[in-house]
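Task 17 of the worksheet. Students: predict the tertiary structure of the chain below and write it out as structure tokens. Keep your answer in the requested format; marks are given for formatting as well as content.
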Amino acid sequence: MKTITLAGGCFWGIQKYYDQFDGIVETTVGYANGFVHNPVYPDVKAQKTGHAEVCRIVYDEKIISLKQILNYFYQVIDPTSLNKQGEDEGTSYRTGIYPEDDSDWVDILEVTHQVQSQYKEKIVVELEPLKCFYPAEEYHQKYLDKNPGGYCHIDLCFFSLGKKA
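Model answer:
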């Protein structure tokens, strides 16, 4: 199994989006690449910790490739929007791709370069190694499954693309 951590604005929608695809073994929402140990949601949301809201994705590369995961990612974010996705604003809602495995950089840079060619504006997705990850509080895990009417910046049509029943 491989792991990639993605920041795409609010983590609720990113988790629900990836849970639908075959090959995604597990998703966990949390906080990454900040400067506070064991951050809590109110502090992250208030921009006090330096963390991004992220979704850590464990996947089976025999079923789904990193390139597929990244192409799906770029479908549901605005990669030119700095620290803002939908109504969510601030550094905790920045976009980012955070690999744990250095061999992932080839695919990350290739896909990002391809996506950049489709935009006049510069892509501002943060590309950094995963420095730290803390799982979010339990009430955030699978939040949109528990709260189907909850806010999400991702259009609902994107939640029915996958093959999982």
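Marker's comment: The chain is about 25% helix and 25% strand. Residues 83 and 94 are 4 Å apart (CA to CA).
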